[in-house]
Design a protein that fits this description.
Helices cover 30% and strands 24% of the residues. The chain is α+β, with helices and mostly antiparallel strands and 423 residues long. The protein has 3 domains: 2-15 and 282-358, Peptidoglycan synthesis regulatory factor (PBP3), Domain 2; 35-260, Beta-lactamase (3-Layer(aba) Sandwich), CATH 3.40.710; 383-422. The chain has a 5-stranded antiparallel β-sheet, sandwiched between helices. A 5-stranded antiparallel β-sheet has the order 11-12-16-15-14, with no helix packed on it. Helix 2 packs antiparallel against helix 3, helix 3 packs across helix 4 and helix 4 packs across helix 5. The N and C termini lie far apart (93 Å).
């Protein structure tokens, strides 16, 4: 930390969490998927990428966006009434029927665990009224998250010529999903029994198709916490997964895998990531980051407005560099705790913006009687104006004194008795 504080210099800050390139790390594993990305789930740093911005038809990882929107817009105990279209959807399904009622949470179990296309369609209609309107919502939300190359045409991932996304975008969507504990709860569930409904009198058994979760599978990975598989003839195999180890969480997204080695490949990428990288806290919320000295000499501590992390490559000895443009605070006044500026941290092709808040009140001082006439924009006294004011006041009193003396002489000269007495 001493190195960081010593390296504080003035410079222009740039946009928050703008990760421009993958790391130049130790040799990463290989995979059969055409599009691959490995991302830090906290910072968003891409530590490995191959065709990560190339558009592919994603198949069922599409449902990650469907799940995210459902969690953002619905309550888990809401009832979903199935329309006429969901039962007709092809591919993997749990065979729901028209007018059947299930809760949002029950449908999410089906979508996440067994990739139920019919439930994904039912949730889309429940939220937006139609598949087309929900697809617009999906595309818009992706842009809001910072996804670069995603266009969604349906909520389930069945092939469409215009339905495209990238490994980077899917990892970004998964990053946002990991903030929802309900998603983690369902994603880590290995088996589940859906309760009977108003139409289907028996329980439906669900088995999670993410084989990284099952300890009897050869692909079992003890640190796995979430995953979404996918396949269509046009999309080939696809997979998005997350794993947590020693307080570090990484996301892997793989698209267009022609031979379905993504389970084994993802384990290799996870181990490589955990062995070579670490999510490290740089500043805690409220910690003093630097100081700003105003033009009148007031020293103002600048505090981190939130926790700031970066993705440290364990083979590098370099430290993050912090920069701050002091000119952004020139001639400004602010209160303690008020966000007032941004600093910038750069490290190994990463760039993070640090929101800065004032550690003290710094208000404009108004001099009594004359108001802000003599107060400058830098909270100091304008001595030029002050000198002129004093001169005017002195001249005023001299003129007043002169007038009084003259008036007294005039009165004395006009009084005969006083003149006689003087003689």
């Amino acid at each position: 930390m001493k190195k960081i504080l010593l390296s504080l210099t003035l410079a222009v800050s740039i946009m928050t969490l703008n990760i421009s390139n993958a790391f130049a790390a130790s040799q990463a594993p290989s995979a059969n998927a055409n599009g691959v990305v490995v991302m830090d789930a906290v910072t968003g740093a891409v530590i490995y990428g191959n065709n990560e911005d190339t558009k592919y038809p994603p198949a069922s990882p599409t449902k990650l966006m469907t799940v995210l929107l459902t969690l953002e817009k619905c309550k888990l105990d809401e009832k979903v009434k199935v329309g006429t279209i969901p039962p007709t959807i092809e591919g993997s399904k749990i065979y729901i029927d028209t007018n059947e009622e299930m809760t949002v949470k029950e449908m999410l179990y089906a979508v996440i665990m067994v990739s139920a296309n019919d439930c994904a369609e039912a949730l889309a209609e429940h939220i937006s009224g139609s598949e087309e309107e929900f697809a617009k919502l999906m595309t818009q939300r992706a842009k809001e998250l910072g996804c670069k190359n995603s266009t969604f045409k349906n909520p389930h991932g069945l092939y469409d010529d215009e339905h495209r996304t990238t490994a980077y975008d899917l990892a970004t969507i998964e990053k946002e999903l990991l903030k929802h504990p309900e998603y983690l709860e369902i994603s880590k569930t290995k088996t589940y029994m859906l309760p009977a409904t108003n139409v289907y009198p028996e329980q439906r058994p669900l088995w999670n198709d993410n084989r990284l979760l099952h300890n009897y599978e050869k692909y079992y990975y003890e640190y796995a916490i979430a995953g979404k598989t996918g396949y269509t003839d046009e999309s080939r195999h696809s997979f998005v997964a997350s794993a947590t180890k020693n307080n570090n969480t990484f996301i892997i997204a793989m698209l267009y895998d022609p031979v379905k080695t993504y389970f084994a490949d993802s384990k290799n990428y996870f181990e490589w990531a955990f062995n070579n990288f670490q999510t490290t806290k740089l500043f805690s919320k409220g910690q003093e980051v630097t100081k700003y000295t105003s033009s009148n000499g007031t020293v103002i501590p600048l505090l981190a407005g939130e926790d700031i992390y970066y993705t440290k490559e364990l083979t590098l000895e370099s430290e993050p560099e912090f920069k701050f443009d002091a000119n952004t605070l020139k001639d400004k006044f602010f209160l303690k705790g008020q966000p007032i500026a941004q600093g910038n941290v750069t490290y190994n092709n990463q760039s993070y913006t640090v929101p800065l808040v004032s550690g003290v009140d710094y208000e404009k001082k108004i001099l009594p009687v004359v108001g802000d006439l003599l107060t400058t924009e830098t909270n100091t006294i304008n001595y030029t104006y002050l000198g002129l004011l004093i001169l005017v006041i002195v001249l005023f009193f001299l003129l007043l004194l002169f007038a009084l003396v003259r008036n007294i002489k005039k009165k004395n000269s006009s009084n005969p008795r006083k003149n006689t007495y003087k003689k």
